[in-house]
Amino acid sequence: MTLIGNDEARAWLGRALQSGRLAHAYLITGPRSVGKRTFALEIAQALNCQAPDVADRPDHTCHDCRLIQRGVHPDVRVVRRAPERRLISMRPSAAPGPAREYADNVQFIQADAQLRPVMGRVKAYIIVNAEELAEDAGNRLLKTIEEPPPFVVFLLTAVERGAVLPTIASRCQEIRLRPAPRAELAKALVASGTAPERAHQLAALAGGRVGWAVSAARDTAIFEQQQIYARQLVEALSGSRLERLLRARALSERWTVQPETVRETLRVWMSWWRDVLLVQLGLFSRIVHLEEAEQTAIRNTAEQVDRATARKAAADIQQTLADLDTNVNSRLALDLLLLRLPGVR
């Protein structure tokens, strides 16, 4: 599934290819799972596509395009943080690890970027979640990003420009991606073989995140996990002080080993409170939690708390997410959050 709901970005790529005026470094920003990595790969494909007519690039069918899509093109390298590391480091890990289709360090880039492409026209370095670059890794990259050879392009992705090291961000042109509209995303899921009812549910829950919707359509466990997160919130709202603290402790312990799982839990909780507000405002068609049991719990909560309380609950969750990403004490932040959430019978 290609980029959805970002016609401006696709139009920019077409104009840039036609004019031949491309920068040496781009920073693709947007919400998590909105399609930033997909678009970076599409740019790399377009730059190396063999289609005779520039207007047809990328055609997704030529040899170079297919190799890039499979992650095995010799001139397109992906760099991202390894699961066992907190940041994208300058040097590879000293301990042997499993073979991966990506690099977890940037040390190789400076020398590799001086070598001409093996197969394509352009060498592309795709750095996923560039906000996770360690400072020394960013400093190592800086010189190469400032003055790369003419056949090299850097494609960085990040949620926000401000989260990337300023010295790196200032050398890149930003391309901002927007969340996909719900109707367009549902239509695309149906076209890819998802049952219409499930496609509607996934498009609603995705909040415009194409990557999440596609993954959830392929793996039902992802959708079921979202329902578990919502049930955990409902249980916490009706639970005792001790039960809330136990839930906070479990989340805190998970944060140390699986931070993205905790982020997704809090995102689900935030969307759940948003639905409570929408029900209170009579905007039922805009809620995203469509399972009958979830809607019953949401309506029950909407009747028991006022709008100000629901709005504060959503804001508290959003603030906790921000605090966790700035390395506050996770146990304290999550304890405070669970204890502040209103009680619901």
What report would you give on this structure?
- With 345 residues, this protein is an alpha/beta fold.
- The protein has two domains: 7-176, Rossmann fold; 219-340, Up-down Bundle (Zinc Finger, Delta Prime, domain 3).
- The chain is 53% helix and 7% strand.
- It has 15 helices and five strands.
- It has helices at residues 7-19, 36-48, 63-70, 109-112, 135-146, 166-169, 182-191, 196-206, 210-218, 220-238, 241-257, 259-280, 292-304, 307-324, 330-340, and strands spanning 25-29, 76-79, 123-127, 152-158, 173-176.
- It has a five-stranded parallel beta sheet, covered by helices on one side.
- Helix 9 crosses helix 10 (220-238) and helix 12 (259-280) packs antiparallel against helix 14.
Q: How many angstroms separate the termini? A: 43 Å
Strand content: 5-15%
- Total helical elements: 15
Beta strand count: 5
Strand order of the largest sheet: 2-3-4-1-5
Biggest sheet layout: 5 strands, parallel
Instruction: Please give the domain count.
Output: 2
CATH homology superfamily name of the largest domain: P-loop containing nucleotide triphosphate hydrolases
CATH class of the largest domain: Alpha Beta
Summarize the structure.
This protein is of the alpha/beta class.
List keywords for this structure.
globular, 2 domains, Zinc Finger, Delta Prime, domain 3, 5 strands, Rossmann fold, alpha/beta
How do the helices and strands line up, and which of them pair or pack?
Blueprint: H1 7-19, E1 25-29, H2 36-48, H3 63-70, E2 76-79, H4 109-112, E3 123-127, H5 135-146, E4 152-158, H6 166-169, E5 173-176, H7 182-191, H8 196-206, H9 210-218, H10 220-238, H11 241-257, H12 259-280, H13 292-304, H14 307-324, H15 330-340
Parallel strand pairs: 1-4, 1-5, 2-3, 3-4
Helix pairs in contact: 2-3, 7-8, 8-9, 9-10, 10-12, 11-12, 11-15, 12-13, 12-14, 14-15
